[in-house]
Amino acid sequence: MGAHASHNMHGNSLASFATLDLTDRQRAVFDVYRGSTVALTDREVATARRFQDMNAVRPIITRLRDEGLLTEAGKIKCPVTGKTVRLVTTLL
Fold it and tell me: Per CATH, the architecture of 11-90 is what?
């Protein structure tokens, strides 16, 4: 996983995480962000979860972002596709 912008979690945010009502797949994707000290691309999350299909993570990442659990932290050129892609990090 790349060296992107880092983040810190506040103690209150960590405590509130236990009350989140996430599906197993949402929690698995969110846990990738919680375990990372840098912002990640969708592809990095898919690779970490061993998903072959990017559509296994993209809608989940977007939903978690829309629910205020994740935030877009910038953009980067994907080394695989050469396209500009989003970097996402957790707010918790």
Answer: Orthogonal Bundle (1.10)
